[in-house]
Design goal:
six-stranded mixed β-sheet; Rossmann fold; alpha/beta
C-alpha cells in the first residue's frame, strides 16, 4: 500500500517538457593519464561516443575501467590528457549549468531543508522567490517529497535524500543529467523504486541522461544504449542497443528478452574482469 501511494505521489503535476530538444553529447578521442611522483597511469584510451538528445545512455564496466573519470570529464570537473567533449556543439572546458550532476554519496547541504537545498541553484541564478516556489513545488510533487519540504537531510531516508539530489540537479533545467552510480548505496527494494522513478522523470522531461553503473541489470533496465567499458586502460569495448519496449517495469526483469540481453552483457563484463585480475 505504501509503495503504491508513493508511486501516485511521484506522478502528480509534472513540470512542462522542453519544446526544443537539447542534450547532444559528443566525446571525441578522450584519453586520460594520471601522473604523480614519476608514476603514470593511463585510465582512458581514445574514447569515442555520441549520445542523442533525450537518450538514456549507460556507461557500464568493472571497477577500474574509468567510467567515473569519463563522467567527470563530461561534467567539466577534469580536463582530459587528449581529446574533447562537446555538448550541443559547445566545447566543455569547465562545469556548466547545461550539465547537472548526481553523485553516489548524498550531497545535500545538512543545514538546509529539502526545499532550500533544491532552490539553492535557482537562488544563485537570481530567479525571483515566487518563481522558485512554483518550480520547486512542482518537482517536489513529481518525486513525492512535497510533505518533506521542511525536513532536513538527517530526517530523510537514503532514498528520499537521493530523490532530493536528483530534482536539485533537474530544477535548473540542464540539457544533460550526469549520474554516477546514484543508487549503489540503497537497499534492493529502494533501488528498484528509484530506478522506476528515474524512468518516470526521464520520460516526462526528456532530459539526456548519462548513467554510470557497475550493475548489469540496472543498465539493461534503464538504458536505451549501453556502452560496455574495458579495463587497463579504459575503452569502449561494445555498444549495445536495448530493444526492450518502454515504459518499463521491474517485472520486465523476469522476461526472456531481458534475461538474454543480461547474459550477453554479463559475458562482456566477465571477460574484462578476468583480464583485470590476470594483470594484478
Amino acid at each position: 500500500m505504501r509503495q503504491e501511494t508513493m508511486k501516485k505521489e511521484m506522478l502528480t503535476s509534472p513540470p512542462m517538457t522542453k519544446s526544443t530538444p537539447k542534450g547532444a553529447v559528443n566525446v571525441e578521442g578522450i584519453s586520460m593519464i594520471f601522473s604523480r611522483q614519476g608514476y603514470s597511469n593511463q585510465v582512458l584510451d581514445s574514447i569515442n561516443l555520441q549520445i542523442k538528445p533525450g537518450e538514456l545512455a549507460c556507461l557500464l564496466g568493472p571497477s577500474g575501467c574509468g567510467k567515473s573519470t569519463l563522467l567527470n570529464i563530461i561534467a567539466g570537473f577534469v580536463r582530459p590528457t587528449a581529446g574533447y567533449v562537446m555538448v550541443d556543439q559547445q566545447p566543455v572546458k569547465k562545469p556548466g549549468a547545461d550539465r547537472g550532476f548526481v553523485f553516489q554519496q548524498y550531497s545535500l547541504l545538512p543545514w538546509k531543508t529539502t526545499f532550500q537545498n533544491i532552490e539553492f541553484g535557482l537562488k544563485i541564478k537570481g530567479v525571483p522567490k515566487s518563481e522558485r516556489e512554483d518550480m520547486v513545488g512542482e518537482y517536489l510533487n513529481l518525486v513525492g517529497l512535497a510533505k518533506y519540504r521542511n525536513a532536513y537531510p538527517n530526517q530523510l531516508s537514503g532514498g528520499m535524500q537521493q530523490r532530493a539530489s536528483i530534482v536539485r540537479a533537474l530544477v535548473n533545467s540542464p540539457s544533460v543529467l550526469l549520474m554516477d552510480e546514484p543508487f549503489a548505496a540503497l537497499d534492493a527494494q529502494t533501488r528498484h523504486m528509484m530506478q522506476e522513478l528515474l524512468l518516470t522523470i526521464w520520460s516526462t522531461l526528456k532530459t539526456t541522461v548519462i548513467f554510470v553503473t557497475h550493475d548489469i541489470e540496472e543498465a539493461v533496465f534503464l538504458g536505451d544504449r549501453i556502452f560496455v567499458m574495458g579495463v587497463q586502460p579504459g575503452r569502449i569495448k561494445a555498444e549495445l542497443e536495448v530493444p526492450l519496449a518502454r515504459p518499463r517495469h521491474v517485472d520486465d526483469m523476469l522476461t526472456p528478452e531481458f534475461t538474454q540481453l543480461n547474459r550477453q552483457v554479463f559475458e562482456l563484463i566477465r571477460e574484462e574482469t578476468l583480464k583485470s585480475m590476470e594483470k594484478q
